[in-house]
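Reading a protein record of the kind used here takes only a little practice. Think of the row as the fold of the chain written in a discrete alphabet. With that in mind, consider the following protein and its fold in token form:
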Amino acid sequence: MLEGKGMIKETDMPVKMQIQAMACASQALDIYDVFDCVSIAAHIKKEFDMMHGGGWQCVVGSNFSCFFTHKEGTFIYFSMESLNFLIFKGASS
């Protein structure tokens, strides 16, 4: 497991949820190849949907840009291994 090896770049999540996000990413990296970003993101999204209700989004990659609106208290952006992870719950309009 890679827990504790990640670096949070930005977040507004509660600490408990931040720990869950990084643990989930670490678990996904143990299961999938680091180049299989789609499977890694799908794993994290499914886990967060189960733990915290539906509507979660996950972006995983080494180089990406984005612009989005999120529900307050549900955003984290961190790096682990050679990948960046963006997890958030979309804001309802």
